[in-house]
Amino acid sequence: MQHISSKDSTGRRKPEADIFGREDIQQDTQEFFNYIMDALHDETNIHRDQSEKPYEVEDNDARSLLYHSIRYWHKYTTQNQSIVTKYWRGMETGITICRRCKNRSVTPQTSDLTSLAIGAGHLVGSLEHYIRNETIDDYPCSGLCKKNGWGPSQVDRRIYLSRMPDRLTFRIHRGIVTPAGYLAKNKSRFTFPFQNLDVEPYFIPKDERGIDRTDAEVAQTADTERQFRPPLKYDCYAVICHIGDSLRSGHYIAYVRDTDSADPTDWIKFDDANVTHVKVGSNAPNDEAEKLFGRGRQQAYMLFYQRQGS
Q: Which of 26, 36, 154, 187 is the most buried (most CB within 10 A)?
């Protein structure tokens, strides 16, 4: 699927006809999600007139990943503060270490959606794969390797979830390349918990959560803002499924938890104009959990989670 940005090369917003709804371009539900997030942020950002100058971490700054994540967020919200940053916008923080000169580089960034590979066929396995250590060859190290003219190096890189929003969104990457070189849909079964998803194992590790208490803003945020500290448990409240054999065509349906019911297994299924009450996760004979995990031509494509207590 082609990604449609809401802004042109100058940073100005494109006409809506170029962003969404064109008949000549196939767009999927992730494109719609990106469009809605961009529009909501653009319209509700109270600092939209501020130019963006992100916080950059100097190489080999020994302070923790949590410290740099919080400091980045403080800088970011002086230019971005909207309904999206309040509820949906999270953060990921990458750390890259050169195997030759041991240069340490930290790169925080914001994210509204985490795109996961199917991997072992379940959400936990996909999250473990997402934060795995990755070895990169021929990397342009910016430390002593660059200073001494040693050329490209080999580095280890990992990414951690570093700010956990009230609403957490996952996209299941179902594109695969066939032996003939064509992009096809991976229709493999993919399971995920409907309740009590604990994402702390994929959050910044405990030995990287120390805080420089001389920085009062960061220390206060670490103590008071739940987005930067456990517990980090979530419940699924919506799932979007794709029905079809190809990524280039098909049909989307949505399942949404019925918030008017105290029973978490009461959900509502939306299929165009057809709206029906269904059971999900109840183990009843007519339960539709397996349809969400993937059956036939229908597979889960986007998962929406709400943080417990939010």
A: 187
